[in-house]
Design a protein that fits this description.
The protein is globular, with a radius of gyration of 17 Å. The chain starts with a helix and ends in a 30-residue tail after the last helix. The protein is mainly α. About 70% of the residues lie in helices and about 0% in strands. The protein has eight helices and no strands.
Length: about 180
């Protein structure tokens, strides 16, 4: 019974993170932007991590893939193994770059570029809101960033996402009255 209870708590935590993520990414264009940029951001972090320990990205992605598998079946059956593709990308990119300095520079540029596209373009311009992490940042939301960005199906008890493409009105201090 303890394993079942733990799994139920993990699934409930994932569902909560997914609801929050979907609420802040209701505009289809913003979701697509995040579906591309979040893995880029994550890969940048893995590339930097690989400079400390070359096999660390594979270990991190294997652990994350195993963690994701039971959280939201059947979608997670694809999301978990997809984590390994990011580790393979990091390996290939690391092998193609000539030095640690070059790999760290690429990682930093990719990470910064990803954030610049996600926040000013995705949230402020397209979605007209603030990122979900402004509302609530948890360890789950950080380590599950890629699965959350890619998990746009399933619906069911978690509710169907709105793909109407209608931006929400701006909220919070980033409004400046521009979108009203």
């Amino acid at each position: 019974m303890a394993v079942g209870d733990a799994l139920a708590r993990l699934r409930a935590a994932y569902a909560s993170e997914l609801r929050l993520y979907r609420a802040h990414h209701a505009c289809r264009a913003n979701w697509l932007l995040h579906a591309a940029c979040v893995p880029l951001e994550w890969a940048a972090c893995l590339l930097a991590l690989a400079q400390l320990a070359p096999r660390a990205p594979w270990l991190a992605q294997l652990a994350l893939g195993a963690y994701v598998l039971p959280l939201h079946p059947p979608i997670s059956v694809a999301l978990g193994p997809a984590q390994l593709a990011l580790a393979a990308l990091v390996d290939a990119l690391g092998a193609a770059l000539p030095s640690t300095r070059a790999r760290l520079a690429v990682a930093l540029c990719a990470w910064c570029g990803s954030w610049l596209l996600q926040v000013p373009v995705g949230h402020w311009l397209l979605e007209r809101n603030q990122p979900a992490m402004v509302t609530r940042l948890t360890l789950n939301s950080a380590i599950l960033a890629v699965p959350l960005a890619w998990d746009w199906g399933g619906g069911g008890p978690r509710g169907e996402p709105s793909l109407r493409g209608e931006p929400q009105r701006a909220r919070g201090c980033w409004n400046f009255g521009c979108w009203n």
